[in-house]
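Hey Z.,

So I finally got round to the NAP thing we talked about over coffee. Here's the setup:
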Amino acid sequence: MVEESDDINVGLLGLGVVGGGVATALLEQSDDISRKVGRRVKLKKILVRDAAKPRDPGIAASLITTNPEEILADPGIHILAEVIGGTDPATRFLKDALAAGKHVVTANKEVLAKSGPELMSLAKQNGVSLLFEASVGGGIPIVGCLMNQLLANDIQSVHGIINGTTNYILTRMAQAHTSFTQALQEAQELGYAEADPTNDIEGIDAGYKLAILASLAFHRRVNPEDIFLQGISSLEAKDFQYAQELGYAIKPLAIASMSNGAVQARVHPALIPLGHMLAKVDGVYNAVEVTGSLCGNVLFHGMGAGREPTTSAVLGDLIEAGRRLVSHPNGSSPPMSWPPENGSSEETIGVSSIDGLQSKYYLRLNVSDQPGVLAQIAKILGDGNISIASVIQKDADPDNQSAELVIITHPALEASVQESLRKVVELNVVKEVNNLLRIEE
Ligand SMILES: NC(=O)c1ccc[n+]([C@@H]2O[C@H](COP(=O)([O-])OP(=O)(O)OC[C@H]3O[C@@H](n4cnc5c(N)ncnc54)[C@H](OP(=O)(O)O)[C@@H]3O)[C@@H](O)[C@H]2O)c1
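And the result:
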C-alpha cells in the first residue's frame, strides 16, 4: 500500500514520444500542476528499457531506472503513468500498481481494449482510479465526455476517424493522387507511420480504440476481436477520383452503433458525402461524432496523436488522479467503472455480424469492353435484391479490350452483396472486382 506524504509522487513508465512530453511537463510546469492539484506533485522515477539511450538533458540521470520494481514496489509513489505501450509487460505493471493501491493513468489502447474490465475491477477493489483519456484520440477529450458529461444520453452511435496515420495516407491519395505505397512511405518518413505499419493500415489500432469507445458508449464491454476490420491497402488513387466525381470523399471510418439492442462495430474505409463534416477532416487529424438521445450530434475534432496532444490527455488524467488523492486521502475516492454502470463491469455485448449490415455500396470492376456486360452484372445483382443507383464507365483500355465499371448501389444487405460478387467474378466478361466500399450517408 502507498504511504501518505506531503507530496504526491508520480512514477512514469516510458520516456519515448509521449513519456518524454509528460516528463518534461512534470518537471518544467511543476508549480502550475501542483497548484491545479492542490498539493506538490513530483516526478519521482522513470522506467526505460535502455539506460544507455541519450535522453533530454533536462531529465536528471538519477530519475531514470530500468528496474520496474523501483516504481511498482515503492510505497512512496502514489500515481503511476504508463506510456510504454504493448500488452506485455504493460498489463502486468498496471495490475501490480493497482493492487499496490496506486492510481493509474495509461495511454495504452491495446491493454484497455483487451483487459479494461479486469483492470477496472482491480481499481475498484483497491479504491483507486484507472484513467485512460490518452488511449483514444490523443488530445481530444472523448473518453472523459463519454464517461461523464454525456452519461445522461442513450448513445445511438459513435463514429469517426480515430487513426491519424490512415487518415494522412488517404488524404494524400485524394489530394496529391499518390499511390497507396507512396503515401505510406511519406507517412513513415514523417514519423506518422511505424516501420511495421500493419496495426494502422489493417485497422487493428482503430479496432482497439473503437472497442473502448463502444464499451463506454453502450455501458457493456465490446470485445475488440468481435469488431469487423477492413484495411486500406486495396484503395487506389482512381477510387478517390471516381468518388469525388460522384460527390464523395473516402475516409477511414470506425463506426459503432446500437439499434434494437444489437451493436454494429466496424472499421473500414468508406465513402461519405463531400458536404459531411467528417469529409473535411484531413491529414493526421481525428474526429469523432457522438449521437445521443439528448445531445443530438456532437462532434469532437483535434489532433489524435503526437507528443503535445497526448501529453495534454495524460497530464489531465494525472491532475485528476492527484485531486482525488487530495480529496480522498484514504483511497476511498469513487473509482471510475468500466463500463460506467453498477455491477455489470464484466458484462460483454455481442457485435452483430457484418453480413447483416444494410448499406449502399461502391463497386469498381475491371470488365471486357463489349456490349451486354452491364446487363449480365445487373442480372446477378438484381437476383440478389441489389438495385443499381448509378453506373459510370471509365478508362477503356483498347489494347486489353477492357473497361472499368463503377457501380453505386441502393441500400442492400452486405451478405447479398458479397454473395453476388462471388458470382460476378465468375462471369467471363469480368476480369476482376477491384474494390468494394461501403457508403455512409
Ligand atoms: N505516440 C503517440 O502519438 C501516441 C498517441 C496516443 C497514445 N499513445 C500510446 O502511448 C504509449 C507510448 O507510445 P510512444 O509513442 O510514446 O512509444 P515510444 O516512443 O516507443 O516509447 C516507449 C517508451 O517505453 C519504454 N519501454 C518500452 N518497453 C519497455 C519495457 N518493457 N520496459 C521498460 N521500458 C519500456 C521505452 O524505453 P527506451 O526509451 O529505453 O526504448 C520508451 O521510452 C503507447 O501505448 C501508445 O499507443 C501514443
